[in-house]
Amino acid sequence: MTPMTQTARGAEQVENATYGDPRRAREIYGEAFRLTFEYVYGSHIPGAVAEFGCFEGFSSLLLADLIAEFRAETEFYARTFSRHFYVYDSFQGFPESTNNVDSISYEVADSGYWREHEDAAPPGTEEMLRAEFTRRIGDTGWTIVPGMFSDSLRSTPLTEDVAIANLDCDLYSSSVEVLDHLLGGRLLPDGAVLLMDDYNCNRANPRFGMRRAMRECFARTDGFYDYSEFLRYGWHGRAFFVHRLGDSPDPDA
Predict the structure, then answer these.
(1) Whole-angstrom Cα distance, residue 233 to residue 211?
(2) Burial of 76 (0-12, 13-18, 19+ CB in 10 A)
(3) Which of 65, 78, 169, 195 would bridge with 174, disulfide CB 3.0–4.6 Å?
């Protein structure tokens, strides 16, 4: 039987790659994302929402709905900011793992789950997301950038502050590309949140994946940025506060 496209079967049937039970996935991601939005809006942190890696669009649609919901909360939150929504994804699955960190990692060398072209988005995913974003948050409040991060972050770079960044890019190399772009461009304001969807993958070994990428990329900022834990979600994800130290006044000075 020929698989139906995303557009044909509807956004309500979009699946999550981590959980086979849609109710469980909505419960875990819904609470983590909502807490993140409540914190960012309650703390009056400016900046866009950006997602790196969307698969079938499960988390993308949750984030779009929260943007629309919180945009309307002008009476509760004393100050709100414009939240453009950026989604970067190859829609072709993973790139080839050409560096040693990824090529010997558990998810590539052992399970094979993150090998080249695995988790490619089903046909019609990008078109479905464009239609759903227009319906949920309007014609101009979002941008989808297709392509591998190594290409898309150069051809269509992010240039504005990012208050919430959801990294579901799995591989160490892809995580480094995204983090170096955000941190190197100083795009994360003080208090921004990094949602690291695959933090405990690769058996939570600090030599691989997002754990290693976080450690190395923040070290390259030479003290301008630091991070601390915010919350944990599911068996896999962890959210972090980003602390911008390089241009902040020192209360002990």
Answers:
(1) 15
(2) exposed
(3) 169
Q: How far apart are CA 71 and CA 41, in angstroms?
A: 10
Q: Is residue 249 part of a domain?
A: no
**Helix pair 58-71, 22-42: axis angle to 10 deg:** 40
pLDDT tens-digit profile of 59-95? 999 999 999 999 887 667 656 788 999 999 999 877 7
- Residue 3 in any domain: the answer is no
Is pLDDT above 90 for 253?
no
Per the structure, the complete domain to which residue 44 belongs is given by 25-244
Q: What is the CATH number of the domain that holds 124?
A: 3.40.50.150
- The answer to the question of residue 13 being in a domain is no
Residue 215 placed within a domain = yes
Q: Could you report the per-residue pLDDT of 173-226, keeping only the tens digit for each?
A: 899 999 999 999 999 999 999 999 999 988 999 999 999 999 999 999 999 999
Residue 191's region, left for phi above 0, alpha for psi from -120 to 50, else beta, is left
Q: Are 145 and 87 spatial neighbours (Cβ–Cβ below 8 Å)?
A: yes
**Closest alpha carbon to 163 in 57, 73, 80, 69:** 80
